[in-house]
Amino acid sequence: MSRKHVAFIADSLDNAHLFQQVLSGLDVDVTPGSSVQIAKLLANPSDFDLIIVEADEAMATVANVEQMLSGESGANMLVIVRQQDLTGFRLPVQVKSDFVVHGASADECTARISQLLWPGNESSVSDFITVDNMSINLATYQVKVGDEPLDFTYLEYALLAFLVTHPNRTYSRDALLRRVWGFDYYGGSRTVDVHVRRIRAKLGPELAQRLETVRGVGYLWSI
């Protein structure tokens, strides 16, 4: 998948936290901003492949962005809309667009972003990582050991994929929270320990040995 450029426009912290987590796991560069920065942020809309915008109650922000993209920018649009505003909501018609409801899961947001950025793309060789009998498909977020798919949550997958793609390097719990959960995550660092235990249990004893604990520091994936 080719690297893309995404503009993220939102005023609420919860959407900022969720999409920071989602976008950090994709092959994209992100330019964030608030609704009052739209004109400056989208001064050259052709610089972007996708605009993610949080809808306000009157849908004025969405209409504004749609108008900016209606020329030859080529950018697509993903709208974040609140459940209570769905009745009066219409998708932008002048650009290719989709929407997610405020509070949607990270998996759903990832899927919708991927469809807008890489429609119909098949996985390439570079999307696959193989370690012993484990394979990770970075395009579909699937992990298999042998021919058996493993049932990882999104964050379990994201943590494993991050460590495997940065092997032989130790990361502290705080660093992993920033890189996987997002820089504004407010939970305790022991959350990482819980997810590591779950990942090891699902990988099985042989592969689990590669996810090493570095006492007093954090974790690394050894190859």
Provide tags for this entry.
alpha/beta, 23% strand, single chain
Itemize the secondary structure elements and their pairings.
Elements: E1 4-9, H1 13-24, E2 28-33, H2 38-41, E3 50-54, H3 60-69, E4 76-81, E5 97-101, H4 106-117, E6 128-131, E7 134-137, E8 142-145, E9 148-149, H5 154-164, E10 171-172, H6 173-181, H7 190-203, H8 205-208, E11 211-214, E12 218-221
Parallel strand pairs: 1-2, 1-3, 3-4, 4-5
Antiparallel strand pairs: 6-7, 7-8, 8-9, 10-12, 11-12
Helix pairs in contact: 1-4, 5-6, 5-7
Helix proportion range: 25-40%
Order of helices and strands: EHEHEHEEHEEEEHEHHHEE
Q: Uncertain regions: pLDDT < 50 for 5+ in a row?
A: none
Number of helices: 8
Strand content: 15-25%
Instruction: Determine the structural class based on helices, strands and strand pairing.
Output: alpha/beta
Task: Report mean pLDDT, rounded to a whole number.
Answer: 86
Question: How would you sum up this structure, described in words?
Answer:
The structure is a single chain. By secondary structure, the chain is of the alpha/beta class. The chain has eight helices and twelve strands. The chain has helices at 13-24, 38-41, 60-69, 106-117, 154-164, 173-181, 190-203, 205-208, and strands at residues 4-9, 28-33, 50-54, 76-81, 97-101, 128-131, 134-137, 142-145, 148-149, 171-172, 211-214, 218-221. The strands form three sheets. The chain has a five-stranded parallel β-sheet with strand order 2-1-3-4-5, sandwiched between helices. Strand 7 (134-137) and strand 8 form a beta hairpin. Helix 5 (154-164) packs across helix 6. The radius of gyration is 19 Å and the shape is elongated. The two termini are 25 Å apart. 29% of the residues are buried. The mean pLDDT is 86.
